[in-house]
Amino acid sequence: MAAPSSAQAEQIVAAARSGAAHEVLRLLDIVDPDTTSQDGWTPLLAASAEGQVEVVQLLLNAGADSSRLKDGRSAMQLAFQAGHQGVFRLLFKTAFQVLDSTLRPGYRERLPTSPKEAAQEDPDAAVESLKQVTRRLAEAGRLEARGVPFVSRVPLVPREVEERAREEAVRGAMRQIACISAPTRRGFRV
Questions:
Q1: Are the C-beta atoms of 137 and 103 separated by less than 8 Å?
Q2: N or C: fewer beta carbons within 10 Å in the chain?
């Protein structure tokens, strides 16, 4: 794909911001989903900041990078700070699918396909998904440690201590995601 013109970059960012899904889809045929406007917005960041769930889904399906930042904030942080629960949940779920797929290459669970479906996601289920992923990461670490010579191996931590540390890590991650003032958390359970 050729580098987009400045006008095309501005066009797709504006379409994403306004929720013009058909226009975004049309532009994705000629513009990279991670193109950046002159003021530093990607289509995913703009759509997330404005709560455009359908456009966010289109962009994620097109391979948009959800780790890109605008003024030090990710798409997930922008959605959370603006109170866009559907977008936040979709990005949160996508982040854990990426983590999970690193543990099981080739695996990809179906993402919600509609704003209504995304809005029905349970934030408690997202926390449970985080716990499952961290358990898998810990197990993968234990499996790798079996191949390390004993002299260089770190002593195994009792499972209850490991579980407590994992719970604290989950809480810490959730606090970092939610590092905003209480008045801007419209509609979120913390």
A1: yes
A2: C
